Amino acid sequence: MSGVTKHVLKNGLTVLLKEVHSAPLVSWYVMYKIGSRNERTGTTGVSHWVEHMLFKGTDQFPAGYLDKAVDRVGGSWNAMTSFDYTTYYETLPANEVDLALRIEADRMLNAKFDPEEVESERTVIISERQGAENSPGFWLGEEIQAAAFRVHGYHHEIIGDMTDLETMTRDDLYRHYRRHYMPNNAVAVAVGAFDSAELLAKIEAHYADIPAGEPPALFVRPEPPQNGERRVRVERPGGSAFVDLAYKAPSATDPDWFALAVLNSVLCGPDGLGGGSIDNRTSRMYRAVVETELAAGVDGSLSPTLDPFLYSISAVVRPDRTPEEVEAAMDAAIDKVVAGDITEAELARAKKQTRALFAYSAERVTMQAYWLAYCETIGDYQWFEHYMSRIEAVTLDDVNAAAAKYLRKSQRTVGYFVPTMGEGDDEGYDDEDEGEDE
């Protein structure tokens, strides 16, 4: 991968451009450096709620107008809120890129936050949370995060706590918007079929006169050291029991992250950056708990995050088995890895699978633009550009060292979901890219 150029406008807006002429499309992202990790108790979920409000119209583009305008030209648009960011994007025919530029320049400044719309959206977001609560995986994930992070903002779900969703005001939302939505707190990315010089001139025409704001002092509290294993148990209606082993993991900018990503591929199968999946039947954890008929399925998850987060291994317990039996088998598989049992052949297979998934994630201009924006937001867009070379550079010694360093019981939170009488969803709650979509 190559060809990215970086520019910083006079108002501090960082712009990344990458020409890809394989299809007549352009994807335009504007990503703000504000997410749920920066929310205080009392306003959890405010970033996600503000994201919703930016679809409620401005004087230039009244509510509903842009849905029709984007659809009319054959494009798509959406937004996501995550732990570390709030982002908006349009993917359009290349000759319609001006529409995308106008949309995001306008709502960087001019979102309305009409009180009636705020109350209407409160109902929508509360319903969204209630829908998530139908999944056992949501309840278990929320309890694990709350136990694993006592101080840091990663302790609450992106959508926010129900009590805050019920009590936040229009002024809370508007204050958050005005404090964080400014060019010098944003990264803008275009990937697609364009001439970089021409597009940069258009970007400057739309964005250069937007005034820079006072750089926001983001609310972030470092998590203190964990002094021993933590355990949570959730008992609610549901169809299956779950076991989740959540280990403290490094941030994406830590070199250890790549070694842990390869380790996850060996243990659970690769976790693709941009979606897609590969059969994990060759993974150690599958053989340990699925082939032995202890669990119906197993999965590993390691997300790139700005601050240290979690590496989770989750299993769905078979009806005739117990969470304790599954945990014991998972621990036995982990103990072997920590003891240095991984082979060069397993390492090579893990890298091959990761290459296949990464090729899928980098195929579409929309995903390329997203990852460039996100990586620049957490430090440097080259994290994505050099992703596979960093994976390829991981050695067996690196993987063994990561296993010994991070797969420690003293640094994990173990969660059980135990179903009680009642109907429930057998599937876990999946928050794609740790994001909440509009």
Overall description:
The structure is a single chain. With 438 residues, the protein is an alpha+beta fold. It has two domains: 204 residues, Cytochrome Bc1 Complex, Chain A, domain 1 (2-Layer Sandwich); 198 residues, Cytochrome Bc1 Complex, Chain A, domain 1 (2-Layer Sandwich). 41% of the residues lie in helices and 19% in strands. The protein has 16 helices and twelve strands. The strands form two sheets. Strands 1-2-6-3-5-4-12 form a seven-stranded mixed beta sheet, with helices on both faces. It has a five-stranded mixed beta sheet with strand order 7-11-8-10-9, with helices on both faces. β9 and β10 form a beta hairpin. α9 packs across α16. The longest helix is centred in the N-terminal third of the chain and has 18 residues.
Question: What labels would you give this structure?
Answer:
438 residues; alpha+beta; Cytochrome Bc1 Complex, Chain A, domain 1; seven-stranded mixed β-sheet; five-stranded mixed β-sheet; 41% helix; globular
